[in-house]
Write a structure and sequence with these properties.
With 131 residues, the protein is α+β, with helices and mostly antiparallel strands. The chain has four helices and four strands, in the order ααβββαβα. A four-stranded antiparallel β-sheet has the order 3-2-1-4, with helices on both faces. Bound molecules: zinc ion. The site of zinc ion has 8 residues, from helix 3.
């Protein structure tokens, strides 16, 4: 599973203390704020380091538009850089990892069964959670 290290670099959301700007984290928070009915954010990580994300309801329905998050390095306050690969093909054929971002600490997440159920509805029966 070569996707995992890639996911960690894209997600980069455990470093709250450092106040490091993470476009992925930021975009997830934004979706959750705009769509109160979204309980998580479904994402697909692409082989260029970008991610495609969209909100997910408790019933496993996607919500809102699919958003593209550039994996190129960003500085706070600057515009997100454009990924040329994604600009050419949109990225949907280059997915290396997919999963769901759940906000808050793990103790506040939905139960694992529900998480898997939502994931399978969105991504298909092959959906698994990383250990
Ligand atoms: Zn890209």
């Amino acid at each position: 599973m070569h996707g995992i290290c890639c996911v960690e670099s894209v997600l980069n959301m455990t470093d709250d203390k450092k106040k490091q700007y993470s476009p992925f984290n930021d975009a997830c928070q934004n979706i959750l704020m705009r769509h109160p009915e979204a309980i998580g954010v479904a994402y697909k990580v692409l082989n260029c380091g970008c991610a495609l994300i969209c909100g997910a309801t408790a019933g496993g329905d996607p919500i809102g538009k699919l958003r593209h998050i550039s994996g190129q390095p960003v500085k706070s306050g600057r515009r997100a850089p454009i990924c040329l690969k994604c600009r050419l093909d949109g990225g949907l054929d280059r997915v290396v990892w997919e999963g769901i971002y759940w906000p808050g600490p793990q103790s506040e997440w939905p139960e694992k069964n529900l998480r898997i159920k939502i994931g399978r509805k969105i991504f298909g029966l092959g959906y698994m959670e990383p250990d």
